[in-house]
Amino acid sequence: MQEISLKPREYQQKIFETARDRNTLVVLPTGLGKTLIALMLSIERLKKYPGKKILILAPTRPLVEQHINSFKKQLPELFADLQLFTGEVAAAKRKKTFFTADVIFSTPQCIANDLKANLYKMEDVSLLVIDEAHRCLKNYDYTTVVEFYKRQGSNYRILGLTASPGSEADNVREICKHLDTEEIEVRTRDSEDVKNYLQKLDYEKIEVPFPPEFLEMKVLLKRIYDSKIGELRARNLLFGPGNKITLLKLQSRLGNMVGEKNFNAMLGMSATAQAIKISHAMELLETQTLSGLNEYLKGLVKQSDEKKSKGVQKLVSSPEFKAVLISLNHLLLKEMEHPKVEETAVLVEEEFKQNKEARIIIFTQYRETATKIVERLNKSNFVKANTFFGQAKKGNTGFSQKEQKQIIENLKEGKLNVIVATSIGEEGLDIAEVNVVIFYEPIPSAIRKIQRAGRTARLKAGKLVILVTKDTRDEINHYASSAREKKMHKVIDLVRKEIKDGRKDMKLGSFG
Fold first, then answer.
1. 211 exposed, middle or buried (CB, 10 Å; 0-12, 13-18, 19+)?
2. What is the pLDDT of residues 238-291, one digit of tens each?
3. Cβ atoms 271, 312 nearer than 8 A
4. HSE (side-chain half, CA atoms, 13 Å) at 478
5. Measured between alpha carbons, how far is 268 from 264 in angstroms, rounded to an integer?
6. Do domains 10-196 and 212-333 have the same CATH topology?
7. Is the CB of residue 21 less than 8 Å from the CB of residue 182?
8. 212-333 topology per CATH
9. Which residues pair with 439 in a beta bridge?
10. What CATH number should be reported for the domain whose range is 10-196?
11. What is the residue extent of each domain of the chain?
12. What is the pTM of this model?
């Protein structure tokens, strides 16, 4: 087998040496070369077990294609037979290819379905690589594939890759249990053996005032919300805090009770649904755009007119709801918008004044918000902005994978210099490194915050800007993600120690 000259960084070499000997979960920020570690381990396993194969999984097809292209770039042409598996390839052909390929790249869904259909077995797989391993929870297809591998594999080795496994100890334990993890290798931007390879990252939090003109609507929506929460408490259905998470859990619980002809549960179900809708309206008002709030409320009015739900009819007919619509229309006629839209445009314009060649990515939760931001940005000099969405065609706003690739290409080539992305831009996709990352709103998830921030300050200095609307849930979410990020490192240390202690116990024979 040909010798391959790879030049790993010091931390990549150390992590590879661990992963060579033990099933390893690698926690490494976006852009620090997790794929090279997978490549080095793949080469080592192919040499150690000739005739055996490597299986590399990633959650989306563009990510899978990215991995195979990365391997093709680094490996000599005849080194190994690399094959891409997708659902578009006929099952009979996949079955045949599985036996001849050396390295297979696929989504977990495709392999899980094939294994359930008994198309092939995992006994000849000497390495299973799981990218975005934080998804290896509950009944996601990753766990199905891993379970088959544990039962059928003979020389098995598992490598999990993620920018963040999350901040909940039980989730991290579950990921490690599924992946049979024997070692966790974690690095951050500040790790001694990493920071020399990274550029300076400037961080700025910009506080945007919540407009007094919006306050009346917030008070009215809160009044409706509080009345629904009060109703649920009076029915002895809701205890503890009344927030989105507890409401969604309650909705699920009540859904199971409604089938039992439980009248209290049925009325509670209606009140819960109304509370969730108003909570969403408040979120749009506080953190997103007035145009987005208007679209949403118009949708509720339409549902009411079509008599789709008695709960929605009740909601829309309330005097508070009607008053919100009047206030909202009044502000829209005055061409008012959430101040974060203009603040974003000012930030982008300032950046291009300093550097006409800059590339910027803006993250936001909602497509409607992204569309509004792009509309505003394209009125500015130097700005060539486009939205970047996933595939689901909500109101024809989604992009096919081919269109997504084209947008990324346009950003690399300079035909675009700003993309405004929803969550599709967070996970793994090979988006060119950018000078500035702007969070239109903070997100409470540590995983998503780390993935978003990893888009800059890798090869050149970068900037991360987070917009926070004062006196709104933006402040709560900003605090939550920072707290969870700190907690994540404590949790990883805890689980790593538990794994180590477990190994010691096994050596002592206490498990035997």
1. middle
2. 888 888 888 988 888 888 776 667 788 888 889 999 999 999 999 999 999 999
3. no
4. 20
5. 6
6. no
7. no
8. phosphoenolpyruvate carboxylase, domain 3 (1.20.1320)
9. 363, 466
10. 3.40.50.300
11. 10-196, 199-209+338-486, 212-333
12. 0.84
